[in-house]
C-alpha cells in the first residue's frame, strides 16, 4: 500500500541518480536555501542568547538521557494518574501489534494521523493496512506523499522533492480514490492546492473517531505530551477523535514543563525559521467532556537503548528533529532524502539510522560516509550534536569490520609509507621519477576523481628534497 | 622567532611550492624556519576514513617530532584542525598521548593564525596585482575559526583586489576520501564551487588548504576556465621583485 525504502541501493549509487536529476536538484536547492536563510536570520537576531539556549538544550537532553529509566517511570506514573494508559514496545513489531490491537478495540477501520517520524520508523501504516485498517495522513506534505504512493524525503517537509505542478497532478489523479476529489480546474497555485487539501481533510476529520500521533516532547513530571506543527491539522487530530494513540520514542522526554521553554524557542527557529511555533498542542491524559476520552501512550525503544550504550554515538538521541542539519547539508541538497534509504535522511539520518538498525547491511555501512565532514550540520544543530564526530566514530566501526579489502590495503600501504620519513622520501623520489607516466584517467575508484577533475602534476622535487638543498645553501 | 614547519604529506609530495613560499615569507619577516626531518603526515585521512589506530600512531610521531617547538606552522587548515581538534580524541583520557597533545596543540597554528596572532602582522609586505577570491575552507572556517584573519592579510597586500565569492561558506566537496567514495556528489559540489569562483570575476582563487584547491583547481582545469588556484602562502610571499604570475 505504501512504498518502503526496501531495495534502495547504498548511498553512492542512489545519490548518482539524484545528482543527475535536474528537476530534483532545482526543487531541493530552492527549498533548502529558502529555509536556511530564514533560519539564519531568526537565529542571528538572538545574538549570544542563541548559544546559551543551544547549550542548555544539549544539557537538558543529556541529563535526561543519563537518567532515562527514572524519567520514564515518572512519565508512566503521571500519564496513568491523568487517566491515560501506557504501553512499552521493545521494537517495531511490538509497537505495531500494540497499536493494531488498540485500534481494533475501538471497532474502527479508519484512523487519522498526525505527522510522526516514530510511526514512519516502525512502518505503522503498512502494519495497519495488513490488519485491514486504513491510516490517513493529515499533514499536508505527508498527505501528498501518501497520495503519490511516494516516500517522504525530509523530516519536516516530506514532499520537499516535489514541485507544485507535480503536487497538482497527484491531487488530480489520486484524491478521489481516497475521499473528497480535487476540484475541477485545480491550478498549481499554492493557495489553490492548500484549499483542495483542506476540503479533502475536513471531511476526514469530522468522520474519523480514532487518531494516531507522535510527540515532540513528553514531560515526565506532569505526563504532558506536546506536538508542534504549522497547519492546525495536527490539532484537529488531537482534539476531535474519541481515542488518541501516541507513539513516542523513549528519548523524547524532558523532565519538567519549564524545560520546554528552551525548546519552544530553538525548535521553531531551527526548523521553519519562525520565532514562535504556529500550533503547539499539549495534552495530559484525558479530561472528561473535552477532547479524546481514551488515551494510549506507546513508548518505543526500537534500538534506542542500544544507542544509549554507545558513549560517543548516544548524543544522536538528543535530536529534536528540527531538520536544520538537512537544510544546511551540501550533500543532502544535492541528493535529497531518498538516497539515504532511511526514514531519517541527511546528516542526522547518517548517524541515527545505522545506530538504530545496526550496520549489517551495505546501505547502513555506506551512511556514515555520506558526508564530506564539512561541519555545517554541527554548526546549526540546536542541541549541539557533534555529527562529524559520530560519523567518524561509526566509520571506525565499519572499517574494523570485514570487507573493504581494497581500501584496507591502501590504508596499510599509506601507513607503511607514512610510518617513516625515509620511506616517504623514497616514495616521493619514485613518484617524481615516474611523474610523466601518470595517466589522465585512472581506473577503479580513482576514476571517480578523474571523470570530472584533472589531477595535479607530480613535481620533480618534493619539499623535503628542496629543503635539504636550501639548508646547505644557507650554511 | 624560531618556527617549526609541518609541511604535511600532501604539500610535501604534490605542492612543494607552498612550503617554499612559507619559508620565503617567514624568513623575509625575519624569523627562522626549521624543518624537523622525522615528520610525515598528521593522519587525517586515516582518522576521517575510520582508521583510528594508524591515525593514533601518526599522532604519536607528530608529537615526538614537534614537542620541543615554540611554535609549529601548518600551511594546511585541515591538518592544523586535525592536530588541534581531533588529536585530543585519539588517546584515551589521561593517556600519555592526550597529555602530550594537550601541551603541544596550543602551539600549533595555521599560517594565517601564526602571522596575525603570534607574529602580530597583517601587512606582510606582499605585492600581488591581481583579482583574488578567498575560499574559506570548512576546517579553516568551522574547526579553526580563522574568521577575518585571511581577509585582513589579503586586504593588506598591495595591488591585490579582493572580490566576493558567492556561497563562500559552502563545502567544495573534497572531504578526503569522500571525493572517491561519493565521487558524484563530490563532483557536483565542486562544480558549484568552481562556477561561483568563475562568476566572481577573480583571476586567482586562494585558500589555506591545497587539498581543497586541488579539488576545485582540478575541476576548473577540466573546464578550461582559465582561473587559477593558489595557496594563500604564495600570495603573501609575493613581492614586487618576485610576482609569481609574471
Ligand atoms: S541533529 Fe540537530 S539539527 Fe539535525 S534534526 Fe536533530 S536537532 Fe535538528
TrEMBL record, chain A:
- Output one GO MF annotation: 4 iron, 4 sulfur cluster binding
Pfam families tied to this protein? Fer4_8, LUD_dom, LutB_C
Segments forming domain 4Fe-4S ferredoxin-type? 359-390
Q: Which InterPro entries match?
A: 4Fe4S_Fe-S-bd, FTHF_cligase-like_sf, Helical_ferredxn, LUD_dom, LutB/LldF, LutB_C, NagB/RpiA_transferase-like
What's in the keyword line of the UniProt record?
A: 4Fe-4S, Electron transport, Iron, Iron-sulfur, Metal-binding, Repeat, Transport
Q: Which GO BP terms apply?
A: lactate metabolic process
Q: What is this protein called?
A: L-lactate dehydrogenase complex protein LldF
Q: State the organism of origin.
A: Nocardiopsis aegyptia
From TrEMBL, chain B:
Name the source's superkingdom.
Answer: Bacteria
Organism, per UniProt?
Answer: Nocardiopsis aegyptia
Q: Which InterPro entries match?
A: Cys_rich_dom
Identify this protein by name: L-lactate dehydrogenase complex protein LldE
> Which Pfam families does its entry note?
CCG (PF02754)
Molecular function (Gene Ontology), one example: oxidoreductase activity
Boundaries of each Cysteine-rich domain copy? 3-84, 132-216
| PANTHER family listed in its UniProt record | LACTATE UTILIZATION PROTEIN A, UNCHARACTERIZED PROTEIN YKGE
Q: Which GO terms describe its cellular component?
A: cytosol
